[in-house]
Amino acid sequence: MSAVKIDLYSDTSTMPTPAMRSYMCEAEVGDEQKMEDPTVNALQAHVAELTGKEAALFMPSGTMCNQIAIAVHCGPGDLILLDRTAHPLISESGGAAVLASATMYPIDGEDGQFTPEQVAQIIEPPTRYKPTFRLVSIEQTTNKPGGKIWDLDQIRAVADVARERGANLHMDGARLLNAVVATGIPASDYSEPFDSVWIDLSKGLGAPVGGVLAGSQDFIDQAWQWKQRIGGAMRQAGIVAAAGLYALQHHVERMAEDHANAKRLAEGISGAPGIEIDPTDVETNMVRFDIVGLGMASSEFVDALIEQHGVRVSAPGPTFVRAIPHLGISEADIDEAVDAIRNLTTKLSEAA
Ligand SMILES: *Cc1c(COP(=O)(O)O)cnc(C)c1O
What CATH number is given for 18-250 in this structure? Predict the structure, then answer.
């Protein structure tokens, strides 16, 4: 395979910056499990404060944040409502069924977002035939549908319905801070309706590893037990937590650049032959476009773009292509990627 020059595959493609690496080198560390790692403790306090929750817990991954939250909230047979594109449903190897023996019910939302009416329709009337309605999980921002922001009023309306019927609320906030940067609404406002919320450190924030799960002290105490149980408890984890702490201090505001670059990319390729894209669909850092007009599979398009131009994007659907700018990507890279995509689509449509 040819060398990748511009990697727009994901916001997980970031490399730790030199400044982040030196901050990591100098981090004070201790035994995390004994609460003796000052850097882990500082990271957890930071995220608890940011999300307005009592406590927080550093995890090796975002997936573990989701899985442990689900395991704390749900028991065998319990019902979890989430969008059909939600990460725990499509990208976590069925963990909710394995670890919590819970039932996941996919809601057919729009752009990964659903309505209080949809929630009510599924759970009513509650009968002894139905699984116990225990949890509603939402993704902020929505990953598969392309970085869409849940509106705070819609979140509150969904939460009200869920709560009235006795369910808990979980937010997969892998990219919550992208929504915060885009809207100016504080993370604590978005988090307020939820019993549990987490943020990913290894997406747009640019840290190499980890997520931080937040909730009430009681919730976090139970999460600690699960973390111990499934082998997620670490030792001198401050060395990696430092990267997250550094990112939260230095990489939040700059995500606005990723959003601007996403917009620039979308506008740049809009109108290219065979491509369907509406630049106003870009709400945060993700660009999604349809290449149906080129008459080829998106996976072939992705391969050709790397082969011929060294630009890497992904193929989240049969004719869908996704590109995600991040802290390793400059405006000049975006312009080069635009030229590459235009060049390739022109060539492909002339050949067709
Ligand atoms: C990336 C992601 C996860 C999982 O996080 P990891 O740190 O990769 O385990 C969960 N939910 C969403 C929406 C994500 O984008």
Answer: 3.40.640.10
